[in-house]
Amino acid sequence: DGAVRIEPEDGEPLVVTPPFGLAHVREYPVVRVSPLLEELEEDHLVAVLLVRLGGYAAGVFDGERLVASKVGSRFVKGRHKKGGSSSNRFRRRREEQARALVDAAADTAARVLGPWRERVEFAALGGDRAAVDAVLAARADLGWLRERAIPRFLTVADPRQRVLEALPYDLYAAEVLVG
Asked: Second label for 168, Cα 20 to 30 Å away, from 20, 127, 130, 157?
């Protein structure tokens, strides 16, 4: 399933999952890490879409180098905790602001990522799942991002340019499980 299982004779097994899966499928009677290391060193062309209520970022990485990007932000009010006659007006205003952010993020994603569609191997999605789902649902021409999405959803608190530029550290990280 896109992971390497290493079972030493005198210890607990390790499961290493490269961020983009494995092209090499094989079973060895002894530990051979060279196929795993080669896979981990491989560079990929990756589209990235990060969305949270309040901000969004779209970018394309060629290996660890950011080759195209655009970020944006929109104010979205926090949740209203009190009831009363103004709570519905507050909720409607918040929904309008969230819808404006989703539309802006979807337009930006289509503009920045669309030209790379034919060359991108993988897509990485992150931020808030509901916000990302809303952006992808807002435009049919963004469906390819979900089709190429890596299994891991990236956790980002604030999708800004500096976060996008530092993303390769998380994007290319392998998951290692003991046991």
From this structure: 130
